[in-house]
Amino acid sequence: MASSKKGRMKDSAFRRLVSLVLITVLGVILLLVLLRTNTISSLINSDTYEGTENIEIIDAIIPKLLSQNELSVSLHKKNQIPPRNLDLFPKLAKDRVVIVLYVHNRPQYLQIVIDSLSRVEGISETLLIVSHDGYFEEMNKIVEGIKFCQVKQIFAPYSPHIFSDRFPGASLSDCKDKDDPVEKRCEGTPDQYGNHRSPKIVSLKHHWWWMMNTVWNGLGETRHHAGHILFIEEDHFIYPNAYRNIQLLAELKSKKCPDCYAANLAPSEVKSRGERWESLVAERMGNVGYAFNRTVWRKIHNKAAGFCSFDDYNWDITMWSTVYPSFGSPVYTLRGSRTSAVHFGKCGLHQGHKRNLACMDNGSVNIAVDEIDKVANIKPDWDVQKYENQAGYQAGFKGWGGWGDVRDHELCMEFAKMYV
User: What gap in Å lies between CA 420 and CA 417, rounded to an integer?
Assistant: First the structure.
């Protein structure tokens, strides 16, 4: 009897211990859930974005060709940080046109475009996303100083600048210039002109394509955005009326120009300041201040194979030469007859990053901003003048090269699959 009683006491003690462990485990799980919920709630204002119930941290999809290094991992984490200035601008306008500024490493240029954006009417109503090609501390500091709107930074984690000794950067085994891969026993596929890849050059196209896929499909702040997104670069001076004008153009596009896929702040001829007519203008899409919506992005994304295989390192020439022509109908953009943005850079993407060598006249820009450029100057009742015969790349153009390496083609296609 004593032995049986002792056994029952042990069983009872064991059950109490098991119960205590289960209660403790459940408590820990509940605490973790509450902490996670409170953390996410504190980071993201539920009134800030449409559909914020779907905003969550997206695990980075690593392209099959690559393995991450310490810097690329840290950039992935930076890309998940919510926008800054939520305390200053807690709500965004429902009819906002999101602005994406993509940059490389020209801090003096960047400071000019940021200063011009600070004077844009309506800028506080929207979100500014700055997409960096790699990571450069001085560029980062300039963006961190923005106080005139919500701003989010994203960093291309697979930029050649992040990988100094292997693809997509340069490795010792890579072919150079016009090396014969068999004779030199090196790695690489030459372009149509016999030249091997230059990491600094191909990063231009890689960054643009990574950015487009990330902004449209990968960011919680924009992957449900139904409106237009405006894209500008670090050497674009933006007039005070640019935002109001692009809002008007985005609204008028479907009514005034059924063949217009986009809206533009500037003529396709970068030196032009516009015709100064009292009418709207339809022409081929320019690469200074262009905006389109998700429907157009889906059409572009569907042409990923053509974009990624066309032998030209310029994203815009690739679009003009192979993507737009593949749509099967004329592709126009709608703009005003007076420019609202100006390209001021005097040299290429990978030059002018040192302050004493910046490619500007006397280290500054002198762009006249008249009173008419400070307010919306587009009228909804204007007719549309269309340039039927447009200058550009004709059928059969094969590209300027620089994009022949099969590894670049494959990485480009991997970017297209990141969030699909």
Answer: 5
Q: Kindly calculate the radius of gyration of the chain based on its CA atoms and give it in whole angstroms.
A: 26
User: pLDDT digit string (tens) for 157-183?
Assistant: 999 999 989 999 999 999 999 999 999
Can you tell me the distance from the alpha carbon of 105 to that of 128, in angstroms, rounded to the nearest whole number?
18
CB 329 within 8 A of CB 231: no
Residues flagged as binding site: 133, 235, 343
Enter the DSSP assignment of 86.
T
* Binding-site residues from annotation for substrate: 133
Residue 130: which of 112, 153, 107, 150 has the closest Cα? 153
Dihedral sign for Cα atoms in the order 47, 48, 50, 51: negative
What local confidence, expressed as pLDDT, does residue 361 receive?
52
Burial 29-52 (b: 16+ CB within 10 A, else e): eeeeeeeeeeeeeeebbeebbeeb
Q: DSSP label at 356?
A: G
192-210 CB burial, b ≥16 within 10 A, e <16? eeebbbbbbbbbbbbbbbb
Cα–Cα distance between 339 and 275 in angstroms, integer?
A: 9
Is 70-166+193-347+412-417 a CATH 3.90.550.10 domain? Answer: yes
Contacts 24+ apart (CB under 8 A), 371-376: 372/338, 373/239, 373/240, 373/241, 373/338, 373/340, 374/121, 374/239, 374/240, 374/241, 375/121, 375/240, 375/241, 375/244, 376/121, 376/241, 376/244, 376/245, 376/248
Question: Quick check: 44 and 152 in contact, CB under 8 A?
Answer: no
- Across the range 145-162, mean pLDDT stands at 96
In tens, the pLDDT along 313-359 reads 999 999 999 999 999 888 999 999 999 999 997 644 434 444 444 44
Helices H, strands E: what count in the chain? 11, 11
The C-alpha atoms of residue 69 and residue 346 are separated, in whole angstroms, by 35
Distance in angstroms (rounded) separating the CA atoms of residues 312 and 402: 6
Residue ranges covered by each domain of the chain: 70-166+193-347+412-417
Query: Residues forming the annotated binding site for Mn(2+)?
Result: 235, 343
